[in-house]
Amino acid sequence: MGPVIRGESSRYPMPAYPRGWYCVCDSDDLAPGDVKALQLLGQELVAARSLDGDANVFDAFCPHLGAHLGHGGTVTQDGLRCPFHHWAFDLRDGRCTKVPYANRIPAAAGLGVWHTQERNGLLMVWVDPEGKPPMFEVDTVPELDDPRYVKAAELEWTMHTHCHEVLENVFDTAHLRYVHGSSSVPEVRNIEESPGRIEFEIRGTDGDANSDLDITLWGMGVQRLLYKIQLPVFELDTLVPVDEETVYAKTRLYMQDLGDPAANESVAAEIAQELDRQVQADNIIFQHKRHVAEPILCDGDGPIPIFRRFAQQFYA
Known about the structure:
With 316 residues, the protein is an alpha+beta fold. It has helices at 163-171, 174-178, 261-288, 304-311; strands spanning 20-26, 35-40, 43-49, 55-59, 74-76, 79-81, 88-89, 96-98, 116-119, 122-127, 149-159, 187-194, 197-203, 213-218, 222-227, 233-243, 246-256. The chain contains 4 helices and 17 strands. It has a 7-stranded antiparallel beta sheet with strand order 11-17-16-15-14-13-12, with helices on one face. Strand 2 and strand 3 (43-49) form a beta hairpin. It starts with 19 loop residues before the first strand and ends in a 5-residue tail after the last helix. The mean pLDDT is 93.
């Protein structure tokens, strides 16, 4: 059994922390021996990487007298060491391994440990409202190993919304015209589902290739967008609830290496600026809208009901 995470919001009928994988930080942000304090999922957490390179995530407070291990805690050969009395905790299972001034380690001494996985350069934790083990995995994104691509930009946003609203927006093809300026309302095609995962295509009509995307979602926390444009570009996006009404979103933007660092930088800046403009346009709406549990939809709205059915597996 893992941690039991529950939360509710007056704005949304869905649980605040849907079942799934959520990125707590990028792998590159946690070097061997590093300790990182985190405020996510309505929790105080700490991520630590052993001197051998393995990373894990724990409840942040020492069970002894409550020191926060993310503020002054260190990684030693004994494990994650508390800054207060130097109790040490195993970096795999959280059990206390050393109390330097005591003859006996209390049997109950240990840190809550989260089910942690690293994939696609992301350090992720599994969240389940009942503490159950993972029901699906996040696939390896093959483009990340393609030498043609370079990381072009990283963008971050804080949103006063729920993960559901952000991802449902992807299926709302009509808004692409009226919020983002598509020349027509695109179509969603070739939807494929498996537990925890949905994959589909968005294709512009009337020759509007700028709307063409291949999209894969893994739960509510990880998304890959592949742009079907002349210059190969893709995104690896993550969403994680900070608390019951706030979401932290991050995009890692990759583009084909043009062979010239100056050209890469110029094109990347232009793409990132446009992406930020479009996300900010959505964000204004997210901040002030309310969730309509039984919306009145029409035939041009896109497959919103398909997404809502897909999302139920993360709430039940």
